[in-house]
């Protein structure tokens, strides 16, 4: 079904490319893999089929491999998944036709070069710190590559070398960044094509538990170590709102969260926090001079940021070694909590009322949260207490020896208590709003686009929404490079129509739906 739809899309794009079809002297262009660009001749006979190399074997890799190998054509794409551990690569390709596993240490440049030399395109789904070294090998061997990570300084420095080698290094081809870029540029370019001027650009994106899985006080869960997510919540942010530049200190980021209600999704109680530097996107999208508002944000369920802000005030996000955690005799979680809140250890016992503990230590914690100014209202202090108890930060068990700071303590507890359970699914929500004004007296329009995707379980195997919405766009980028449909060389983002038009079409054909609407 997907293949039939993809063929229709590509045939449609082919017909557009062959607008000269009435001219008998003009060569016909085919957009299908395994066909030469002249005369539409299929040269797949006797030709080695295209090969893609996926570096990494994490959650994102399998959806990427499945997509690339599911493109049934005369020339099927063969995918090699390479990982430091052979077993991980084998598990990733298990059950995927036309995919094989390989063991590779990417720090071994000779082995990396040998494998890259045997393929046509490379998709790096490793941590961002590896991308530049991999890109250098791709440039040297004149192989195109794709990543889902942000363009950092180490990648930007490869621009000239990539252009000189005639190589495309397609970066930021995931969800955020990735789908958000492509959807933004589609909306902006369409508005500009109608002589519209962008008045405001706002973007909201987040990976969340599905509503059924948002069953803890924070309404949030982690599919890997929470340390990175917590650190991200401490980053400073800057954006433009109604012509004013707004700076948010990292220590105040959680406190800057605002509620969000989407009329099309009334069941979702959400909030948004500014996401780092929004101003650079005004430049990237070419709207910095015309848009009075440029704002990108991270989505969470309502109430998350309020709790996280208070946990930060208590001191749980302090990364410095704590003296109490350096002692040979390990403290319990309760003793450490009492230390952070200056609680008198005399009041340590609770009584049970209707099966729930109350009084004693609980009352002391609530009192300290309010006395220290962390909570102004008792209702909020009770909510924080529930979070503390859910995380087990009040328990009379020893803190592990590898926890040396308050930050490591709460990360360890969150990783244990806020992991996804069996058959629990995540959710990805992306929502763009672009306000467009016109010079001819037409009313201002609000263009909106929404992506809502849930994790899936098929044949006993679960795929997260995040893995799907990062892995599939990266694979689509590789597909377009295999088709030679990306003419730009160098280190690029998916901001041009030659990338975002077919990519968004194929994305929707693969089942990842984007809903667009216009309000006046």
How big is the Rg? 26 Å
Strand content: 15-25%
**Strand order, largest beta sheet:** 3-2-1-4-5-6-19
What is the helix fraction of residues, given as a range? Answer: 25-40%
Largest sheet, in brief, is:
7 strands, parallel
Structural class: alpha/beta
Number of helices in the DSSP assignment: 17
Number of domains: 2
The fold-level CATH name of the largest domain is: Rossmann fold
The CATH superfamily of the largest domain is known as NAD(P)-binding Rossmann-like Domain
Oligomer: single chain
Q: Indicate the mean pLDDT.
A: 89
Please describe what this structure looks like:
This protein is an alpha/beta fold. The chain folds into two domains: 2-175 and 461-512, 3-Layer(aba) Sandwich (Rossmann fold), CATH 3.40.50.720; 179-309 and 421-457, Dihydrodipicolinate Reductase, domain 2 (2-Layer Sandwich), CATH 3.30.360.10. It has 17 helices and 20 strands. It has a seven-stranded parallel sheet, with helices on both faces. Strands 10-11-12-7-15-16-20 form a seven-stranded mixed sheet. It is globular, with a radius of gyration of 26 Å. The two termini are 37 Å apart.
């Amino acid at each position: 079904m997907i293949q039939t739809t993809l063929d229709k899309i590509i045939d449609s794009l082919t017909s557009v490319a062959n607008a000269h079809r009435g001219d008998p002297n003009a060569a016909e262009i085919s957009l299908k893999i395994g066909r030469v660009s002249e005369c539409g001749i299929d040269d797949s006979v006797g030709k080695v089929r295209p090969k893609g190399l996926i570096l990494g074997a994490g959650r994102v890799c399998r959806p990427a491999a499945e997509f690339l190998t599911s493109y049934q054509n005369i020339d099927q794409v063969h995918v090699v998944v390479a990982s430091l551990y052979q077993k991980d690569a084998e598990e990733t390709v298990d059950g995927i036709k036309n995919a094989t596993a390989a063991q590779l240490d990417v720090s071994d440049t000779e082995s990396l070069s040998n494998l890259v030399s045997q393929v046509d395109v490379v998709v790096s789904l490793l941590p961002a710190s590896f991308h530049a070294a991999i890109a250098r090998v791709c440039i040297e061997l004149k192989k195109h590559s794709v990543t889902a990570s942000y363009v950092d300084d180490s990648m930007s420095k490869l621009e000239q070398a990539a252009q000189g080698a005639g190589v495309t290094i397609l970066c930021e081809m995931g969800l955020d960044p990735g789908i958000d870029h492509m959807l933004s540029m589609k909306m902006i370019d369409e508005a500009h094509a109608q002589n519209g001027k962008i008045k405001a650009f706002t973007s909201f994106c987040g990976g969340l538990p599905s509503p059924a899985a948002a069953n803890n006080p924070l309404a949030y869960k982690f599919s890997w170590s929470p340390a990175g997510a917590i650190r991200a919540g401490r980053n400073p942010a800057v954006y433009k709102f109604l012509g004013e530049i707004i700076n948010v200190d990292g220590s105040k980021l959680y406190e800057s969260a605002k509620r969000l209600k989407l009329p099309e999704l009334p069941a979702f109680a959400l909030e948004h926090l500014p996401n780092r530097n929004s101003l650079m996107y005004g430049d990237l999208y070419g709207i910095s001079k015309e848009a009075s508002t440029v704002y990108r944000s991270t989505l969470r369920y309502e109430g998350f940021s309020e709790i996280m802000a208070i946990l930060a005030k208590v001191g749980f996000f302090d990364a410095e070694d704590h003296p109490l955690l350096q002692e040979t005799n390990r403290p319990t979680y309760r003793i450490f909590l009492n230390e952070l809140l200056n609680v008198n250890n005399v009041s340590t016992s609770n009584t049970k009322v209707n099966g729930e503990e109350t009084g004693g230590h609980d009352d002391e914690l609530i009192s300290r949260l309010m006395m220290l100014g962390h909570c102004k209202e008792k209702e909020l202090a009770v909510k924080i207490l529930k979070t503390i108890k859910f995380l087990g930060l009040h328990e009379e068990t020893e803190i592990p020896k590898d926890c040396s700071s308050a930050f490591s303590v709460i990360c360890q507890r969150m990783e244990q208590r806020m992991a996804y359970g069996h058959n629990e699914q995540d959710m990805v929500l992306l929502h763009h709003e672009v306000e467009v004004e016109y010079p001819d007296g037409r009313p201002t329009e609000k263009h909106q686009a929404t992506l809502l995707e849930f994790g899936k379980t098929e044949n006993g195997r679960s795929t997260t929404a995040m893995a799907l919405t990062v892995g599939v766009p990266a694979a689509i980028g590789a597909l377009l490079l295999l088709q030679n449909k990306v003419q730009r060389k160098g280190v690029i983002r998916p901001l041009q129509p030659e990338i975002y038009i077919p990519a968004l079409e194929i994305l929707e054909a693969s089942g990842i739906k984007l809903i667009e609407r216009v309000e006046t």
